[in-house]
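Section 5.1 Outputs to date
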Amino acid sequence: MELAPLIERYTGQDGIHPTAVPSLFLYRYSTPSDPLCNVREPAFGIIAQGSKRVTLGDDAYVYGRAHYIVVSVDLPIVGQVTEATPEAPYLGLRIDLDIAQIGALIVEAGLTEPGNTQTGRGLFVSRVGSPLLEAVLRLLRLLENPQDIPLLAPLVLREIHYRLLVGEQGARLRQIALADSQTQRIAKAIAWLKHNYAQPLRIEAIARKLHMSSSSLHHHFKAVTAMSPLQYQKQLRLQEARRLMLSEVMDAATAGHRVGYESPSQFSREYSRLFGAPPIRDMARLRASLHAPPEHATP
């Protein structure tokens, strides 16, 4: 498989490697990782070697070589590299998805028929087909000729978006860009939560904005994200608090209050439940890891 040697060529050491194609990132890790929580924006990823486990709510996805993952909305997920050795490192790539381009392609390609209108998870895993793999390989080969990237990379990225749309899970991806689909409404609810996570959660008000009932919002939100709006908000709050403590050296009480917690004890309990340790111990562990190889992140 040509994909693994190509990724290995441009990843001399473990970590996440940006490329000359702004939306393309390459991954290499020589050992399995601890679970890592992060909010993943819409993206497409392929594993060329090794394997990974991704958890969304109570759902777990284990996938490996020649499989791809798509995240179609912003989702709090936990990623963990499960198979990697120095001799056969984990190798993968991530391409950030352009939802506007997906919407334009849906119209241009005449893919606007209703199809499967069921609200599905905003994350799915599939095997890579030959047309999609060939497009990804062409994008990677462009790294050998940087002068060609400005002209040719947008064309290849457009094809990759198209191949995802017409693939076996394409109907689920199309839902995110179709006007007035339930999935698009949930994407708008997610966007509101991301910008207002510190505010009290008022489901009725959000539902009215989206022209949905509260019960319908709960149902479709959980169908897309595998969690309730309240659980989603908690994940956003806790991950932002973690960032504040790490990057701005903020104490736990202040960080918890900043993201919307009134009770320091509740903040500490929920933080420990998500990250596996109380804030002080977790910060000590994270700061120690700054001197170690970079953390793994989900492609």
